[in-house]
Request: fold
Amino acid sequence: MAIAYNLISSVTVGSGGAANIEFTSIPQTYTDLLVKLSGRSSRSAATAEEFLLTFNNNGSSYAEKQLRGSGSSVITQTFSGSSIQQLGQPGAAATANTFGNWEFYIPNYTGSNNKSILLDGVTENSGTTAYQYFEAGVWSNSAAITSIKISAGSYLAVEYSTAYLYGISNA
Amino acid sequence: MTATYEKIATNTLGSSQSSITFSSITSSYTDLVIIIDGVSSTGAELFVRFNSDSSSNYSFMQFYADGSSFGTDIRNNQTEGRIGSIRTVQNSVICNIFNYANTTTFKTATSRDGAGTVITNTFTALWRSTSAINAIQFFPPTGTFNSGMVFTIYGIKAE
Reply:
């Protein structure tokens, strides 16, 4: 039986950091995509430094519902606009070597339907501050997803940030 | 390399359906992962029944948020389990069913679902049966699953 869960590509950010983590020329031979992201921002604050997610270098028609808990409070927010914009990461003031972790699942990425995305993430400042996120996103576009960009906004994803792209096939 | 994550069955609906059932699910895996993506005609709960059991053996708990409010809900002694919702806009569900083939313990599932313009949800469901799961029915309480909706079951093998 064929293996259903395959690594397509991975990125490890090198010395000096990177403004973006990108997967391009994504094969159209799978059913779903899964991204596992471990990140940290160069921004000076400690927590919730958001990375941004876009597809096909397209900067419109994204929407997002967020549920976020901190251990002491829960909030829910709506976002819409030019990206999925709430991939929280530790910033430069966070404890050294602390990275946020995210997983996002994109079913039926080659289809002509709008693209639904489920995103789960955590960011921690070594026991002093933590957030957990449960998010649903959508890219209201019928195009097949051929590239994924994870941007650090106006900042950098620091060295040792990693992202892994998996393809999942139901063939 | 030994395959540990394999497709068991998939169904892409060619027409609207009021329910779909996967039967004769092999017991040769350890856990199940179910991926669902699509749209329904009315926007409704996504219910499940295992092994055609419609007795009051199900419980489920929901934690939800829609951007302006959040909350939690629990239902006990239900005639079906709930693992998500299927909306009238594009919606996806990931459900994990743990140790589904064992004949000693009750069966537990966790799931995530959401639609980016509507809601984000997480669920836990319990089926109070020690039977191995060999069939899963998905259905909404009202309306239908639209044509084009995709249901896939994967097996994960611990070896």
